[in-house]
Amino acid sequence: NFYYITILRDPVSRYLSEWRHVQRGATWKASLHVCDGRSPTTEELPSCYTGDDWSGCSLQEFMDCPYNLANNRQVRMLSDLSLVGCYNLSVMPEEQRNKVLLDSAKENLKRMAFFGLTEFQRKTQYLFEKTFNMNFISPFTQYNSTRASSVEIDEQTQRRIEALNFLDMELYDYAKDLFLQRYQYMRQKEHQEARRKRQEQRKILRAKQAHLRERGENGSSTDYIGNVERW
């Protein structure tokens, strides 16, 4: 059996992290972006840069490229692109395309046996362990200091990144709500199971105590009758 799982991240932090990654020379050349059996044409998915990579690009340049796959990456990677004609943007109006992608991403996320959020490391670990009945040998660590957190941006830049990733922003709100619901459900289930076990243990203890009292009473009667006979 195969289970699809994923870890989602705050869209702004994720976007900044990818920019820093690309800035250091990372590329996605090995990714074929195959959809419906074929890769997109250069017209469907133009490149944001010329040359071997996009190293040294500024955040402004990164945001200015309209073909940047960093935009709404989480929605795109969770959705069924074949529903919107893959990378062919002329299949349907943009507003309709965005709605179909977002709905598809939400549905696929909901169907996953497990997903986590980087901002809730301990809760993510707890849900994984309870879902798959497995335990990690050490607790997850909440790292709040990342490459993305080291990038200082002003409010205007923050708003623009949010606008560029508006689908991811909505997906993340949905994911956070669903994640916390699943966490609360697992916690309640754990409490109910613990309460059931305590009740069972109390029943067993009461039964043992009753049995011991019965034995004690029977033993006292036998001793009394024996003494009477001797008297």
TrEMBL record:
Compartments where located: Membrane
Top EC category: transferase
Keyword line: Glycoprotein, Membrane, Signal-anchor, Transferase, Transmembrane, Transmembrane helix
Main subcellular location of this protein, as a coarse class: membrane
Gene Ontology MF term list: heparan sulfate 6-sulfotransferase activity
Topological relation to the membrane, as annotated: Single-pass type II membrane protein
Cellular component GO terms, alphabetical: membrane
Region (Disordered): 209-231
Pfam families for this protein: Sulfotransfer_2 (PF03567)
Catalytic activity as recorded in UniProt: alpha-D-glucosaminyl-[heparan sulfate](n) + 3'-phosphoadenylyl sulfate = 6-sulfo-alpha-D-glucosaminyl-[heparan sulfate](n) + adenosine 3',5'-bisphosphate + H(+)
Documented EC number(s): 2.8.2.-
Record InterPro entries: Heparan_SO4-6-sulfoTrfase (IPR010635), P-loop_NTPase (IPR027417), Sulfotransferase (IPR005331)
Organism superkingdom: Eukaryota
Biological function: 6-O-sulfation enzyme which catalyzes the transfer of sulfate from 3'-phosphoadenosine 5'-phosphosulfate (PAPS) to position 6 of the N-sulfoglucosamine residue (GlcNS) of heparan sulfate.
Family: Belongs to the sulfotransferase 6 family.
Protein name: Heparan-sulfate 6-O-sulfotransferase
Native species: Charadrius vociferus
